[in-house]
Amino acid sequence: MPKVKRSWKAPPEDCELIEPTLDELDQKMREAETQPPEGKRKVESLWPIFRIHHQKTRYIFDLFYKRKAISRELHEYCIKEGYADKNLIAKWKKYENLYCLRCCIQTPDTNFGTHCVCLVPKNKLEVGLIIECMNCGCRGCSC
Fold first, then answer.
1. What does pTM read for this prediction?
2. Torsion angles phi and psi, residue 124, rounded to 5
3. Which site from 4, 75, 84, 132 is most exposed, i.e. has the minimal number of CB atoms within 10 Å?
4. Would 3 be classed as within a structural domain?
5. Whole domain around residue 81: which residue ranges?
6. Mean pLDDT, residues 14-41
């Protein structure tokens, strides 16, 4: 994954509140990127990266939209600097538990050519049947 180009603009004042968590997630992302893909399918090697990206974006989404703990300025700064995915946040406003954008937009890339298992409610899935999304590794997030 290419490094995110940072601007020279100073971060907002309340950036110190989320900086330790974002630094920790960046460290996890570096570890996931350097992890050898031995013994895994090609798509499985990308799943940890998707999970960390989702976690980082979800953290900022929850702080701004759910808890209202950060300012709009900090939210826009995080999106501009690449800490959060603007398109994923936009889709979360419609599909609350969506795991990745490929699951919603590129439906031919899913296991069965229809909606991803991320969008299927857990009570609709058969008990004991394990289905994983081939894009992100999700086993059904929707409630």
1. 0.79
2. -90, -15
3. 4
4. no
5. 13-94
6. 91
